[in-house]
Design goal:
Blueprint: H1 8-19, H2 25-32, H3 36-48, E1 68-75, H4 81-89, E2 94-99, E3 107-113, H5 116-129, E4 132-138
Antiparallel strand pairs: 1-3, 1-4, 2-3
């Protein structure tokens, strides 16, 4: 990882938080082999430096009654790409937007809904904002994993 501002303790803390953001400071301290105060201070520093931007929960959307999890790949004019990405994120039902450094298909978003009307509404709002939808996909499953280089070397 080269000139990373993170040491082994920071990476280990991040790994444990990625596995479960509800891990307590005490649990992380035990796993990392440092004091609770060290973990707390490191987390505060990681937050202050913008490395930890927030904490999130992994939701099973189907169990929560949101049967449709879908994705759109769009193209936005490069000069408006970032503003459009932020505007799209404000559309009710949109849960994630990624802005790519490409000319075409430079915005990817995920959204949730209960029926086809939700998909149609979101698609119309994206169109009205000025982004062109290229691909619409229904997501069956979503898997993620902590960043492996943050994994402590003793695991």
């Amino acid at each position: 990882m080269g000139d990373s501002p993170l040491d082994d303790v920071d990476r280990s803390i991040l790994h444990h938080l990625q596995e479960n953001a509800r891990n307590t400071v005490t649990d992380i301290a035990t796993e990392v082999g440092v004091s609770g105060n060290t973990v707390r201070n490191r987390m505060e520093e990681l937050e202050k430096n913008g490395i930890i931007r927030g904490y999130s929960v992994d939701i099973d959307y189907k169990e929560a009654g949101l049967d449709l999890h879908f994705a759109f790949t769009c193209t936005a004019p490069i000069s408006k790409r970032e503003d459009l990405a932020r505007d799209i994120l404000a559309i009710p039902g949109v849960i994630e937007v990624r802005e790519f450094m490409t000319g075409q298909e430079n915005i990817y978003l995920e959204a949730l809904g209960t029926d086809a009307e939700d998909i149609t509404r979101i698609a119309h709002e994206i169109d009205e904002l000025g982004a062109e939808i290229h691909i619409e996909r229904l997501i069956r499953n979503d898997f993620s994993n902590p960043f492996d280089p943050f994994r402590p070397s003793d695991e």
